[in-house]
Amino acid sequence: xxxxxxxxxxxxxxxxxxxxxxxxxxxxxxxxxxxxxxxxxxxxxxxxxxxxxxxxxxxxxxxxxxxxxxxxxxxxxxxxxxxxxxxxxxxxxxxxxxxxxxxxxxxxxxxxxxxxxxxxxxxxxxxxxxxxxxxxxxxxxxxxxxxxxxxxxxxxxxxxxxxxxxxxxxxxxxxxxxxxxxxxxxxxxxxxxxxxxxxxxxxxxxxxxxxxxxxxxxxxxxxxxxxxxxxxxxxx
Length: 236
Description:
The protein is 9% helix and 28% strand. The chain is mainly beta. It has a single domain, classed as L,D-transpeptidase catalytic domain-like (Beta Barrel). The strands form two sheets. The protein has a ten-stranded mixed sheet with strand order 1-2-5-4-3-12-7-8-9-11, covered by helices on one side. The protein has a two-stranded parallel sheet with strand order 6-10. Strand 4 (108-114) and strand 5 form a beta hairpin. Keywords: Cell shape, Cell wall biogenesis/degradation, Glycosyltransferase, Hydrolase, Peptidoglycan synthesis, Transferase. One of its GO terms (molecular function) is peptidoglycan L,D-transpeptidase activity. Belongs to the YkuD family. Pathway: Cell wall biogenesis; peptidoglycan biosynthesis.
């Protein structure tokens, strides 16, 4: 596997730029810019198993989570294409178990489980012009994190000014219930894998480069993902 040299984004940028990785809070989603390195072709291939999750099973998997700090509502699974339901698939790779592989072309995130298997999640990804590829790692993790809009965003979107001192964690917070922050060479890239309650966003390119999973899927991935986990984002 080869990887082009990465352009690392300065780590002192405010985490608040993640607003535009979350669907629907504000109308404009163009704050996150910048680039990460492209990587060469990878000898990776996913193959779907035949035993997909039924709608009835999905309704249970994506049901409410009442015991959270902020009780999480059920996902309307009728608004999600069944091919994006969480499932175990065959995925041949030399990457170590635990590695996360993002496939933006097909709107999937894989967690490598070993023995030729992976857990596959449906995702939303960056829209055209904002997709990136490269190798990163989970530099830190967050649960119900506070979000603070940067000055640049407040200038463009004055409605964000009310959160200038920080938006507490909650269901409307753009960081969601769980967040994995992606780093390169010790610096935060401004990109994340985050939790989304927007069922209709899955299978679409709508962010400024971040990757969103349904909240219940994100919690499942988050609990199995320690800091320093390798993350590969494939070319779109």
